[in-house]
Design goal:
The complex is a heterodimer. By secondary structure, chain A is an alpha/beta fold. Among the domains of chain A are: 39 residues, no CATH class; 103 residues, 3-Layer(aba) Sandwich (Rossmann fold); 48 residues, no CATH class. Chain A has a 6-stranded mixed sheet with strand order 5-6-7-3-8-9, with helices on both faces. In chain A, strands 2-1-4 form a 3-stranded antiparallel sheet, covered by helices on one side. Chain A is globular and about 50 Å long. Chain B folds into 2 domains: 32 residues; 217 residues, MetI-like (MetI-like fold). In chain B, helix 5 packs antiparallel against helix 6 and helix 10 runs parallel beside helix 11. By secondary structure, chain B is mainly alpha-helical. The chains are: A alpha/beta, B mainly alpha. At the A-B interface, helix 2, strand 5, helix 3 and helix 5 of A face helix 9, helix 10 and helix 13 of B.
């Protein structure tokens, strides 16, 4: 059943919230194969189910229909083996722990996880990464012993990214991690994320509502539409890496942005127009 | 001349504003020592004392003169200290029983939804019931020993801790729970590393209520079971039947002192234990 190259495999996923009269179909018939080591963004308007899709992959919710697999096992088994790193929209740090403690605590939790790593993931569990070095790499060297409340939003989110990456996850799930940050901070963090990812090349599923962000970061952009939540297009981004800030201004970059905007618009408008007419 | 030279030198520096606005001498005092801090309360206490004395002069059956209270306190300190010690012991042992019991139950009802639905509504109702009223019933049931005092104290301290801690254990933001769920934290790990620390500010809020409340519980129970054992509540009861107004107020003074000391103690512990929470609150 499972293809060893597929890191994430979603088949016919369906998720419904609420009871039948005013039920909300968050996802319907979603199929998605993500090869290992790819950076995939999921983009779409509010209510298109992109965060729901992420939560299904992260075992935070169960599908009402269909099937989700991470490296050939269920999302729960993948989480039990600590294959998944999760970066939520808010940093979600523990306010009583300093930056370093926030990043190291996950290593003291679920210690038996290594034994549960499935063979398909091919993860050779090497030595634990130097978390202090990782924090220094993203500019948090001076903040190792500071509490989250003493940090800016950008620094908090960097801590959350290091916390997830420090687990050496086979799959990194990011749920609009930069949406609460200002434009400048967001671009700096995008660049740092690309630098980090360049080294580890883990599989990333990155939920966003920013077209520019999706094009800049991704190998593949998955375009979704709401009511019911579904995938309308999957676009491979053929831009060379590393992607510098300068590249955002090139015509090739704009072409991809326009293409995605077109897909979003047509998907968003078509059902509404037909009912309005 | 240095005093004159200094401003001239400052005027030539590019950014003199910060240095010219030298802090006035009063600013160098610690905040708590500034007159603006302590003067209002000192004046208020003096005004109240004067009012008390005037009332005591005119209506001695209403309030005893302050010097009479001071005389009995100073004249027989052992009496008040011994009784205060007994009351304090009852209060703190009762509180400890309540703390252990309610903390265990709080963890149970925060972890098990069925228990929560069964117990929380009752706890909320009992929390707003004046449970000191149960004291006479417990004296009837348990007699004049220390048991009814401990039970009354434990009961009135129980529900504020239970409600606060069980709310605190569930106060963890969803995103935090989600992160730790994706690394498959067990319930015990989640409880120990995430929920219990999250509940600490709620626990201390409850302790600041129940430390003084524990004294109320002990005193009320003593009043309903006088004679057999001592304590400030018993002392007040005895003094009341003998019309010894200064003794009553001297005992009340001791109780107020104990309540304030306990509140001060728990606030100091909280400040140490929850340094992160304070900086958190300042930042917000």
């Amino acid at each position: 059943m499972d293809t060893p190259t597929s890191a994430i495999s979603v088949r016919g996923a369906r998720k419904v919230y609420g009871a039948s009269p005013n039920a909300l179909v968050a996802l319907d018939g979603v199929d998605l194969e993500i090869p290992a080591g790819r950076f995939v963004s999921v983009i779409g308007p509010s209510g298109c189910g992109k965060s729901t899709l992420l939560r299904l992959i992260g075992s935070l919710e169960q599908p009402d229909g269909g099937d989700v697999e991470v490296f050939g096992v269920s999302p729960e088994a993948a989480c039990a083996a600590k294959l998944v790193g999760f970066v939520p929209q808010t940093p979600a740090l523990l306010p009583w722990l300093n930056v370093l403690q926030n990043v190291t605590l996950p290593h003291r939790i679920n210690r038996g996880a290594e034994r549960r790593r499935p063979v398909a993931s091919g993860a050779s569990a090497g030595p634990a990464p130097d978390l202090e070095q990782l924090l220094r790499d993203v500019g948090l060297g001076g903040a190792l012993h500071k509490l989250p409340a003493q940090l800016s939003g950008g620094m908090q989110q960097r801590t959350a990214i290091v916390r997830a990456l420090g687990l050496r996850p086979e799959v990194l799930l990011m749920d609009e991690p930069f949406s609460a940050l200002d434009e400048f901070t967001r671009e700096v963090l995008q660049e740092q994320l690309l630098d980090l990812w360049d080294e580890i090349k883990t599989t990333v599923v990155f939920v966003t509502h920013s077209v520019t962000e999706a094009v800049r970061l991704s190998d593949t952009v998955v375009v979704m539409a709401p009511r019911p939540g579904r995938i309308v297009d999957v676009i491979d981004i053929g831009l060379p890496r590393p992607r510098s800030a300068r590249q955002i201004k090139t015509p090739e970059f704009h072409a991809y942005e326009d293409l995605i905007r077109d897909r979003l618009q047509s998907a968003w408008q078509s059902p509404d127009l037909s009912t309005a007419a | 001349m240095t005093a004159l030279d200094a401003p001239t030198g400052l005027a030539e520096t590019p950014a003199p504003a910060a240095r010219i606005a030298a802090p006035p001498a009063a600013r160098t005092l610690p905040a708590s020592l500034r007159p603006s801090r302590w003067l209002p309360i000192v004046l208020m206490i003096l005004a109240l004392a004067a009012l008390w004395q005037i009332t005591a002069q005119g209506m001695p059956y209403l309030l005893p003169p302050l010097q009479a209270i001071a005389e009995t306190l100073i004249g027989n300190p052992a009496y008040y200290l011994e009784n205060a010690w007994i009351t304090l012991q009852e209060a703190l042992i009762g509180l400890a029983i309540a703390f252990v019991g309610s903390s265990i139950l709080a963890v149970a009802i925060s972890e098990v939804a069925v228990l929560r639905r069964a117990i929380m509504p009752i706890a909320v109702v009992l929390n707003v019931t004046p449970l000191v009223a149960i004291a006479p019933a417990l004296v009837v049931a348990f007699g004049f020993g220390p048991e009814p005092k401990l039970i009354v104290t434990a009961i009135i301290c129980f529900f504020p801790i239970l409600i606060n801690v069980s709310v605190g254990l569930r106060s963890v933001p969803t995103a935090v729970l989600q992160f730790y769920k994706t690394i498959h934290a067990s319930r015990a790990e989640m409880l120990w590393h995430v929920r219990v620390p999250s509940a600490l500010p709620y626990l201390f809020a409850a302790l600041k209520i129940v430390f003084p409340l524990s004294i109320v519980g002990a005193v009320v129970a003593e009043m309903f079971a006088p004679g057999a054992s001592e304590g400030l509540g018993t002392a007040i009861g005895l003094a009341s039947s003998n019309n010894k107004l200064p003794v009553i107020y001297a005992s009340i003074f001791m109780l107020a002192l104990m309540g304030a000391a306990l509140l001060g103690l728990i606030t100091a512990v909280e400040r140490r234990a929850l340094r992160w929470h304070e900086t958190h609150a300042d930042g917000a």
